[in-house]
Amino acid sequence: MPGIGAPPTSERASSSMYKLEIDLKRGNNLAVRDRGGSSDPYVKFKLSGKEVFRSKTIHKNLNPVWDEKTTITLDCLSDPLYVKVFDYDFGLQDDFMGSAYLYMEALEQQRCIPVTLVLKDPQHPDQDLGSLDLSVTLTPQRQSCGGEEGLHFHRTYTDHHHSGFIRVDVKALSL
Ligand SMILES: [Ca+2]
């Protein structure tokens, strides 16, 4: 019977309702986890328990500059982004350097917002583990982009029609 089973890919893709662009800028006064008095920090972003981004490792630096960008699609705004920092250790389990949550519901939308996340170890909430600087842009996604394009064309068509450039538009449309 048609219609039973997994939905087609296009249908699933259109269920992503928001786009979250993140610019991971830098860390400030991160925790020491290595014997030499430094750490090799990297950052993980997790959403609903799933890793969605992992930054580069910056060796021996407690004030690392990443300047890495990523874009994540979100189905809803109720799940916060879980941000975790680790110290890379060759051949050993990486050490935890603190975590923070980014709450999406509180974010102003369609604007690039600077965010400072204060890192905490839930097991030792008194410890100062430094902070991360990011900027985030949360944009609602349209279910269908056809309508908007049509409207844009209509506007262009009308403007150009009045100024006598209608033939250029018709040519561009057929490309
Ligand atoms: Ca290390």
Describe the structure.
There is one protein chain. By secondary structure, this protein is an alpha+beta fold. The protein has two domains: 15-140, C2 domain (Immunoglobulin-like), CATH 2.60.40; 143-175, no CATH class. 18% of the residues lie in helices and 37% in strands. It is built from three helices and eight strands, in the order H-E-E-E-E-E-E-E-E-H-H. The protein has helices at 9-13, 146-163, 166-173; strands spanning 18-28, 41-47, 50-54, 65-74, 81-87, 95-102, 112-118, 131-140. The protein has a four-stranded antiparallel sheet with strand order 4-1-8-7, with no helix packed on it. It has a four-stranded antiparallel sheet with strand order 3-2-5-6, with no helix packed on it. A hairpin with a 2-residue loop joins strand 2 and strand 3. The longest helix has 18 residues, at 146-163. It is elongated and about 50 Å long. The two termini are 39 Å apart. The model is unreliable at 9-13 and 145-175 (pLDDT under 50). The structure holds calcium ion. Calcium ion binds at residues 33-34, 39-40, 87-89.
